[in-house]
Write a structure and sequence with these properties.
Strands 3-2-1-4-5-6-11 form a seven-stranded parallel sheet, sandwiched between helices. It has a two-stranded parallel ribbon with strand order 7-10. A two-stranded antiparallel sheet has the order 8-9. The chain is an alpha/beta fold and 268 residues long. It is globular, with a radius of gyration of 22 Å. The longest helix has 28 residues. The protein has a single domain, classed as Rossmann fold. It is 37% helix and 19% strand.
Amino acid sequence: MSASTPESKPASSPALPRALPRIAAVTGAGSGIGRATAIALARNGFTVALIGRRLEPLLDTQEAIGLTGGEAQPFTADVTDADSVEHAFAQIAQRFGRLDVLFNNAGRNAGAVPLEDYELDLWNDVVATNLTGVFLCARAAYRQMKAQSPQGGRIINNGSISAHSPRPNTIAYTATKHAVTGITRSIALEGRAHNIACGQIDIGNAATPLTERMNKGVLQADGRLAPEARMDVEHVANAVVHMATLPPEANILDMTIMATTMPFVGRG
């Protein structure tokens, strides 16, 4: 009787690498567009780093994300302060190991102030948040995206339709939003070599507490006070998610999303 041949075993397949979790950071994540976008990103599979000046609103956003089954972590920072920004992004790198998307959203308005009455302190405050803050957060994210492995990521800057056409008596806000467009294009150019894409979303009249006044009337180019249409902030959040989830070889450089009947095309 011949000796039995041992049963051959199939060669084991190499283990597939686990997909890396997608990490997104959102500035101004405690309210309005930032909160809505952070929730939408988490709903679409991102782990979200929530950045803002005050912890309590960030915790509210974190709780809302947790109710959807998503994951988020708050990081307090003042976007106008370089050390504060660097500390927050260092914490994000330490906590998550990488950063795939930054939604550079934090900003401020200043109401309608005629040029001859515009105080330098107010100008400096608006520039510090809307321009310097965008630069500081973009710089910190860019450094992380360039250094990490795999290299690359995506920065999405919150511009405004005021980056194209001003409202009356808003010189600082308008100037900073025009400048954000320059930041976006500079990063889009310099990021090519490091697989870092950069785009801008220009938003008109998203329904948030900051735009409640539009229901009563805001100053128009012809001097009238008139109410303006607003749109659900969820439409903005979903648009940012679309930009954030594009494959690396595609980028939306500029997107304008606005309430359909607001006075922007042919404004005034």
